[in-house]
Amino acid sequence: MLISQDVVRREILFVKDGPNPESSQLLFELALYGKNNCNIVILEGILNSKWYKNLFENLLDEFKGQIFAYYFDIPFKETLNRHQ
Predict the structure, then answer these.
(1) Which of 22, 27, 42, 68 is the most exposed place for a label (fewest CB within 10 A)?
(2) Which residues share a beta bridge with 2?
(3) From residue 50, how far is each of 18, 24, 47 by CA, in Å?
(4) Is 4 in contact with 44 (CB distance < 8 Å)?
(5) Distances 13 to 17, 22, 37, 40 between C-alpha atoms, Å
(6) Using CA atoms, how far apart are residues 76 and 50, in angstroms rounded to an integer?
(7) Closest listed residue to residue 22, CA positions, set 67, 55, 69, 59
(8) What is the predicted pLDDT for the residue at 65?
């Protein structure tokens, strides 16, 4: 199950990102649904570690540490190339 943070936040809830993100609870609930109904759950997006700390901690507890986080360190010039 792929959960896109931007889709949930911008297209479903119509809320802005920032401290105490309004989308956290729905992201959490969707991840729990995925845990109970799918083999793999992917939470995709640019999630500020300070703003989403509670979400990360709660997911870590729910998934019993079976979480993998990936960060892509791509130079800005390459980002521009990929978006052309």
Answers:
(1) 68
(2) 42
(3) 10, 12, 9
(4) yes
(5) 11, 8, 23, 24
(6) 23
(7) 55
(8) 86
Residue given tokens 């390459």 in the structure block: 78
Residue ranges per domain, the chain?
Answer: 2-82
Distance between CA atoms of 51 and 21, rounded to whole angstroms?
7
> How many residues are there in the chain?
84
- Looking at the chain, the whole-number percentage of residues with pLDDT higher than 90 is 85
Query: CA-to-CA distance for 19 and 62, rounded, in angstroms?
Result: 23
DSSP line for the chain: -EEEHHIIIIIIS----SSS-TTHHHHHHHHHHHHHH-S--EEES---TTTTHHHHHHHHHHTTT----------HHHHHHHT-
